[in-house]
Amino acid sequence: MNFTNCSQSTALKSSALENYEAFAFFMDTIVSGLLLCATGLIGNILVIVTLWQDRKKSTTSFLVVALAFADTLYLIHSFMFQSLRSVYSYTGDLKGYIDVWPYIEPYEYPFGLMAQMITIWVVVLLGLERFIAVCKPLRAKVWCTHRRVRMQLACVIVAAIVFAIPRFFTQTTKVTVNSCTSETTARVVASGLGKSKEYSISVNTIFLIIAYLVPLTLLTYINTKLITVVRKSYQDQSKLQHYRSKKSLKQKDKLTLMLIVVIAVFMVCETPVFINHLVYIKGYMGLPHSYFNVVSNTLVTLNSSVNFFIYFLFGKKFRRMMIKKFSKSKKSEQNHVFFSSSSSQEHPQVNVHDKIVSLDPEIEKKEISRYNVGC
Length: 375
Prior knowledge:
The protein is mainly alpha-helical.
């Protein structure tokens, strides 16, 4: 046996592991924990406080507030599951948390999946709501009512809970005692349904379809349609004569553009973790897989922490509402609805022929057709 080669190989493995632990500490604790989770929690709270009253006036605001709540729950999960756990392996600190974590994980992990599932499908509901408002405006007042949106959100929450329940029975905490030192060591092991390979494959496959494949497919289609509508609207705006109509179209397009960005960021951040889950079905693929796992988890955390900044950058009314909310202004905010809803209560019937004034009769005809027929 060549002991020199063995020792060199061990040293290389040890060095590679140390590099990975340093990378995981930086991404999980510094980036995800201190930067994304902290700013994300503050941002989501600001969204909830700013739009809390507005949620009663607009179905979109209602969904945005729901998304902020779901994102907050996921950020708490991310901080517990990623940020705190990476501290000990690199610094040796927080050993007490590592000792306690095996007792927490079997119950906390399903809650994290639940929060992630709710976040994903609330984004889908937001996309569908905007798609109907833009492409099917005459049907929006029937399809996008507060009652229907609440029912849809309730269905999403119930489905996420039902799907997460079996996860509580797939892991358990196993405690071993060292006969020499009498020290106890706890670790998480598969139990019950978790020991069945057939069950794991079937559940993971259903999870990937419901949580990633279907939502990402729907959002790809929705975003493509919304981008097409916004692009066409900007092309036609230059030929509109009436200032008021031009301004109205511009405001509508800004809201649509904002939700396009929200959906695009969501897709960029969620697609890598979808790929990661697909790879895990085949089994662990070595250290490169661990690096990819850290990056994909960080992107999911980013998705749950960045929406406030999108609203702030693209939403002039949101900035105005937030300033008024925290400056304790006594002025009425009745006319400052950040997200215009599509329900009949908030959008009375209007004559589109009175709204659209054009130099070119063909453009006017196209605009009226877009209001009546949709995409």
